[in-house]
Amino acid sequence: MTLKNKTLVLPLLLIALASCNTPLNSQKNTAKTVVNATVSNVNKQQSENNSIVLIAQPQGSSLIDTLAKAKTLLQQNKAVEIQLSRGTYYLAEPVVLGPEFSGTAEAPFVMKPVKGHQVIFSGATLVQANWQRHNKQLMKAQIDAKNFDLLFINDQQQVRARYPNFDPEIRIFNGYATDAIAPDRVATWQDPTGGFVHALHRARWGGMHYEISGVDSQGEVTLTGGFQNNRSSGLHNMYRYVENVFEELDAPNEWFFDKKNSTLYFYPPADLNLANSKVTVSQAENLIELRGSINNPVKHIHVQGITFTQTKQTFMKTKEPLLRSDWTIYRGGAVVLEGTEHCQISHNTFTELGGNAIFVSNYNRAVNIASNEIYNIGAGAINFVGNPDAVRSPSFQYREFVELDKMDMQAGPKSSDYPANSRVYDNLIHHIGQLEKQVAGVQIQMAANITVSHNSIYHVPRAGINVGAGTWGGHIFEHNDVFDTVLETSDHGAFNSWGRDRFWHPKRDVLIDIVKSHADMYKLDVLKPIIIRNNRFQCDHGWDIDLDDGSSHYQIYNNVTLSGGIKLREGLDRRVENNIIINNSLHPHVWFENSKDIFRKNIVFGAYKPALMKIEKWGTEIDYNLFTRQKSLTASQKFNTDQHSIFGDPQFVDAESGNYQVKKDSPAYKMGFKNFAMDQFGVVSEHLKAKAQQPKVPNLTNNETSGRHGNAITLFGARFSSVTTLGEQSALGIPEISGALVQMVRKGIAENAGLQVGDVVLYAIINDKNHKIVSNTDLRDAYDKTKWQSHIKLVIVRNQKEQTVLLTY
After folding, report:
1. Which residues, given as ranges, of the chain have pLDDT below 50?
2. How many whole angstroms separate alpha carbon 144 and alpha carbon 3?
3. How far is residue 383 from each of residues 380, 524, 593, measured CA to CA in Å?
4. How far apart are CA 495 and CA 802, in angstroms?
5. What's 527's DSSP letter?
6. What is the pLDDT of residue 728?
């Protein structure tokens, strides 16, 4: 049964307490009044700002009663602070604070622990488990709980029954198997209904999640879901696993809950005394919600010093599409802010969460998220996402667009229903996205003027920082330390952005015409430049800075990139200056003729690595850079760039320790380079600095790569090269580094079939079967096998869309 006498349950009735809409005076009484308003006998406390202090306990209805008392005092224009006594507050439903809980600038309404007390807000509930032996390995117990998806034994999260078994040494999903839902395996399951299949997107653009609804006559599982990526695909054929199937309960620490019979099965490890263990199960998705509106916002509430933990998973609710990015989202988290002004979430710990940590949704102003630690969570860390109703002429899917003659051409947002003028400062974020993979340490979309400063972000499955669209610019990213990124996905960066705003179009030729005829249209959405400065980025599985489709109006300066270099896909008005690009270079992809891009005064290790750059002149100015090798400079100058650039030893002060400032005799000074601080990256709080990891300092190398290996071949009157780099994969928008790229088409077979430069051949269809084209050699082999037929069908990708062409010899 549920231990209700030890469980604090906050009913949604509290919402009514928080939404009576009684007006508050702008100033509250801040006289030195101390009131012991505790539910139990606790010593009187006094706040630093002379507010009335109310003490809450974790037992019974203490917190509910204390909040009700606080509301009454606030209505009397008193300044109030709630201090929480030590212990775990088990919340079956969230604490909802409406406008009536607002404080003032002089006396904010504060919720924090009593000094020296450890306070935990848990989304779980305690359950009584009378364990009995089920078989040699498994124990079972009847429990009074429903609809939970996380089990904790002695506050340690356990593993829901899965195949393959959990392995902490395997980076992707901690274990994956091609045969996770193969019919032979499915045949061993009595009833997999209610199980889940987790997989990467086919192109590894995040994750996909499905619920098993049954098994069909062919022995295949039937699935619902897959909406967690806004550019949905089928399951990745390798990176997948299944969970919540009873027959897969075969390893220590695994569990399964039989809902029909309310029976919990558990495989205890040998060293666990299960009879004396505490058992908790997740019940709540959100723990604290600050909820107001544009016209009646919640103001001046501070939430401090609390540990948030054990919330439910939300992956099957992650389905709201964002603006033409790869993201869908769920507007939930351990802490949710909507309709707030001048609220602060600081010095908290977020861990062992099923979903997001913090979600800042729709209208919010002057939110301060500072000095928190966020780790070991199922989804994203800090999210700022506005209301799409505030966007002019929005499009949601990648291939959606609004015709120019129907476009709202007014600049800026339609309303103020979005986050703005807020700060993310001094947060330690790591080991996030343990289940959902399209996540970030900080995600921003449909927001303005968000400053992200002095955060340490690492060990993430995708981007450390992601900007989902240009709307509405003004963000500043500075002094962040972002590394060990894109660990489970692909085609991404430590810093990643999209810019598929109003000017952007999925058809390349149309997009080019729009940019020519409406050169400044990008400024309708990116009202102020987005600034990336004084950061340290590292991504071994993509780019350190990845400005993807349409990203425009950026200023990028004084950054150290340790591994993946800087990628600029098609976009406008990017100024990249005074950066140090270790062991890599600039990756220009499919630029516009008049992009207005500037790349100068940078220290560059390798030759530029262009992808599908079909223009003669790159940007406004690509020059005055220091290359570390003459070979790199010479190769780059072949692109009609860098006529005034030079090569030489940068003369770093101490590269082995990561100090890339240059000495006084460095040739970089001749190019206008200026030193910037190398000791200002990441968190600044002493307790967080003591915990924060540092990126591995790379060995300096001048190894050059050609960008494409192997010789081109000529077939069907066309020239094909092999796709061999991540840059080519990204620029072409194909699922993996594979295929034969059309470089040139002459009159003849290829032209008659409609092949075009930039097409990528993925498969040859021979005898009604797809034969994968990994390289141009595979294409030649396919031709040799079909010459006798005088024709061949090819599956190609053009503008990131598959189609079939027939070539007749």
Report:
1. 1-44, 703-710
2. 9
3. 7, 24, 35
4. 29
5. E
6. 84
CA 171/CA 285 separation, integer angstroms: 26
Q: Give DSSP secondary structure letters for 533-576.
A: ES-EE--TTSEEEEE-TT--SEEEES-EE-SS-EEE-S-S-EEE
Q: Report how far residue 308's alpha carbon sits from residue 122's, in angstroms, rounded to the nearest whole number.
A: 6
Helix (H, G, I), strand (E, B) or coil at 62: helix
Tokens 């290829």 belong to residue: 750
- Which residue matches tokens 């002379």? 50
Alpha-carbon gap, residue 62 to 496, rounded angstroms: 45
Q: Which amino acid is at 681?
A: F
In angstroms, the CA 557 to CA 532 distance is: 6
Give the H or E element holding residue 632.
helix 630-637
CA 539-544-550 angle, to 5 degrees, is 130
How buried is 293 (Cβ within 10 angstroms: 0-12 exposed, 13-18 middle, 19+ buried)? Answer: middle
Q: Residue 396: count other Cβ atoms within 10 Å of its Cβ.
A: 15
Residue showing tokens 């990845």 = 546
Measured distance CA(65)–CA(50) in Å, rounded: 22
Among 180, 188, 193, which Cα is nearest to 235's?
180
pLDDT of residue 790: 66
Using alpha carbons only, what angle is made at residue 744 by residues 739 and 748, rounded to the nearest 5 degrees? 105
Distance CA 69, CA 110 (A): 14
To which residue do tokens 């209610």 refer?
A: 194
The size of the chain, in residues, is: 809
**In which region does residue 778 sit, left (phi positive, over 0), alpha (psi from -120 to 50) or beta (all else)?**
alpha
CB atoms within 10 A of CB 417: 21
DSSP state letter for 399: T
Alpha helices in 268-421 (DSSP H): none
Give the per-residue pLDDT at 788. Answer: 53
Kindly report the pTM of this predicted structure. 0.86
User: DSSP code of 312?
Assistant: P
At residue 643, what is the residue type? Q
Is residue 790 within 8 Å of residue 801, measured between CB atoms?
A: no
Please name the residues in contact with 781: beta carbons below 8 A apart, sequence gap of 6 or more.
Answer: none
301 with 97: CB under 8 angstroms? yes
d(CA 657, CA 560): 13
pLDDT value at residue 16: 35
The C-alpha angle 751, 752, 753, rounded to 5 degrees, equals: 90
Asked whether 718 and 750 are in contact (CB, 8 A), the reply is yes
Q: What is the pLDDT of residues 630-686, one digit of tens each?
A: 999 999 999 999 999 999 999 999 999 999 999 999 999 999 999 999 999 999 999
Give the pLDDT confidence score for residue 258 in this predicted structure.
96
Please, what's the b/e burial string for 627-662 (b: 16 or more CB within 10 A of its CB; e: otherwise)? bbbeebbebbbebebbeebebbebebeebeebebbb
Please name which of 363, 259, 156, 324 lies closest in space to residue 800, comparing C-alpha atoms.
324
Return the DSSP state at 252.
T
Q: Which residues pair with 78 in a beta bridge?
A: 29
Residues 793 and 805: beta-carbon distance below 8 Å:
yes
Instruction: Count how many Cα atoms sit within 13 Å of the Cα of residue 14 in the half-sphere of its side chain.
Output: 27
Say if CB 460 and CB 483 are below 8 A apart.
no
Residue 210 pLDDT: 98
Q: 359: closest CA among 349, 351, 371, 367?
A: 367
CA distance 131 to 144: 13
Dist. CA 387–CA 189, nearest whole Å: 43
Integer Cα distance of 648 and 639 in angstroms: 20
- The per-residue b/e assignment along 549-579, b for 16 or more CB within 10 angstroms, e otherwise, is bbbbbbbbbbbbbbbbbbbbbbbbbbbbbbb
